[in-house]
Specification:
The protein has 289 residues and is an all-alpha fold. Helix content is 82%, strand content 0%. The chain contains 15 helices and no strands. The N and C termini lie far apart (47 Å).
């Protein structure tokens, strides 16, 4: 039983979803200057989490044949046969139905619709089509992955304001360089699976240059919360320090032949986004006290 639970947890991509939920919380708290009702916080967190883990499960289902060709993913439970495709579909549908009902009846309809569209964008549009159709898959499909802070915003306000979209913009600009760094490190995997990631179709140097370009865009986007008055000096200092680190990694990666540096760049990008949104929350909390 414990093993079976672990397999189902794997389908949910818990580390990815945990980072998404952190950005959801940032959106929720930045949308208001008053205390959030616990009932709304719990319902929004649970509903968005369930729809996100449902989308992650469907991604496992759609990608299972390609996952079998890649070292990074060949131990996933659908590839090894530890879970059946039918069981995974039942799990995904159950999560999505419960999550959608929670959002509709305990949060608001707008959040339910946007969360559902985000899940469809990732699980179906990106996984089924974009991922295998264009080297710009991450750029175009990144919109679905950028939605969580906007979902948190609409959970509180009931409508997607410009400031909520600004938070989504940060993740949208961050996503390509984050995934391209991993694609560089796992070049052989993507080549073997014939997935048209940018390093495969346009070469390593071209990809490294675009990591620098998108890192620059991320830096610009990260300063917008301060520029429009959503955050204060604490966030500004934190964002600037994180931006310097990101650009140092991007430039070092461009000139380096060390394949392990691509993985380090990928890991730093996760730290970058996590700390950036933690500082958004902390700055907002301190401004309220």
């Amino acid at each position: 039983m414990t093993e079976q639970i672990r397999y189902y947890v794997t389908l949910c991509k818990p580390r990815v979803v945990a980072l998404m939920i952190l950005t959801v919380w940032a959106g929720m708290y930045l949308a208001t200057t008053s205390a959030l009702p616990w009932s709304l916080w719990i319902a929004a967190t649970l509903g968005i989490t369930l729809l996100s883990t449902s989308a992650a499960t469907i991604n496992h289902i759609v990608d299972r044949r390609f996952d079998a060709l890649m070292d990074r993913t060949k131990q996933r439970p659908l590839v090894t046969g530890n879970l059946s495709t039918r069981a995974a579909w039942c799990f995904a549908i159950t999560q999505s139905v419960i999550g959608l009902l929670i959002l509709i009846f305990a949060v608001n309809t707008m959040t339910a619709i946007l969360t559902l569209l985000s899940g469809i964008g990732y699980a179906l549009v990106y996984s089924l089509y974009l991922k295998h159709a264009t080297p710009q898959n991450i750029v175009i499909g990144g919109l679905a992955g950028a939605m969580p802070p906007l979902l948190g915003w609409t959970a509180v306000t009931g409508h997607p304001d410009a400031q909520g979209w600004l938070l989504a913009l940060i993740i949208f600009t961050w996503t390509p360089a984050h995934f391209w760094a991993l694609a560089l490190h796992r070049y052989a995997d993507y080549e073997r699976a014939t997935i048209p990631m940018l390093p495969i179709t346009h070469g390593i140097t071209y990809t490294k240059l675009h990591i620098i370009l998108y890192s620059t865009l991320t830096m610009a986007a990260s300063l917008l919360p301060y520029a429009v008055g959503m955050s204060g000096t604490l966030y500004l200092i934190s964002a600037c320090l994180l931006d310097v680190g990101m650009m140092v990694y991007a430039i070092r990666l461009f000139f380096s032949k060390d394949n392990h540096l691509a993985l380090k760049t990928f890991h730093y990008s996760i730290i970058y986004l996590t700390v950036l949104f933690v500082m958004l929350l902390l700055d907002h909390y301190l401004a309220m006290t």
